[in-house]
Design brief:
single chain; mainly alpha; Arc Repressor Mutant, subunit A; 2 domains; two-stranded antiparallel ribbon
């Protein structure tokens, strides 16, 4: 990051430079999120016909591998790829998007209050079919 000396640079120029830096940092974070969440590359072992993003494949894989036993939110976060662990709200959003994506294939994610998320063995077989 470039250090700007406020004593030698007019205040308006200094503020514009800082605003531009913040704008570029926000854009970089957005691009990084999209590269992690937006690619339709399936995790090894997940059926490629489902056309899931990497993060969706990751969640589907762990739910299918443990079916019918529920997987806690904490466990999903602990096993999250690329070190970009989501907070609770983002995990719920990933699950919601995954549910919509899998609905067309007749695959359901079950919420077990107090336990986490689960999948039936039959649905797990559809997810893990390769």
């Amino acid at each position: 990051m470039v250090a700007l000396d406020a004593s030698t640079v007019p205040a308006s120029v200094h503020r514009q430079a800082l605003d531009r830096i913040e704008e570029l940092e926000a854009k970089l974070k957005r691009v990084q999120r999209e590269s992690i969440n937006g690619s339709f590359e399936s995790v090894s072992g997940v059926s490629p016909e489902l056309q899931l993003t990497i993060c969706q494949s990751h969640v589907a894989f762990h739910l299918a591998k443990s079916a019918p036993v529920p997987v806690s939110k904490e466990e999903l976060v602990r096993r999250w790829p690329t070190g970009s662990m989501p907070d609770d709200g983002n995990l719920k959003q990933h699950i919601s998007h995954l549910r919509r994506r899998l609905a067309g294939s007749g695959i359901k994610i079950i919420t077990r209050d107090g336990y986490g998320y689960a999948m039936t063995k039959a649905d797990a077989a559809k997810v893990l079919r390769s």
